[in-house]
């Protein structure tokens, strides 16, 4: 029986690229980006939409240590989202939970408050997903989105993600159970979309 994983290309997650679009630039995230990203951690609505439980104390030193080490990670890709027109860091995109045996990754994105509704998230998603398939050789990229975040779900659908199912009562938020929708996009689907868009 052939070992499929050994014959598959090994993604180079140590290569932290810069990816440029019309609205956003994605580049390696660094500790210097922490001041711009802190509103993501301080905003109650962002915490709700991402299902981020915390203990009420924000440890900025721990956050700085986290971002200071992103450039050396060989199993994930963390990129800052920079708005092209202003040069401001407005969020981050991440490919993580790499499964080498199944050539798959999880995807997540978070933008700072006030950055929504301008197409920044949709373009950032397309850029990093395209990199995942075209450069890293991934076959599947998946995510979960909570039922109370329809805006994010629409953005994922625009980028080509397809609903696979529902994780019932996946999150307990302030006494209420919330479902999570599992979505994914596969490499063949991505390349078909790219071919159609380029036709």
Automatic annotation (TrEMBL):
InterPro entries: Acyl_CoA_acyltransferase, GNAT_dom
Native organism: Streptomyces macrolidinus
Domain (N-acetyltransferase) ranges: 24-188
Pfam families linked to this entry: Acetyltransf_3 (PF13302)
The name this protein goes by in its record: GNAT family N-acetyltransferase
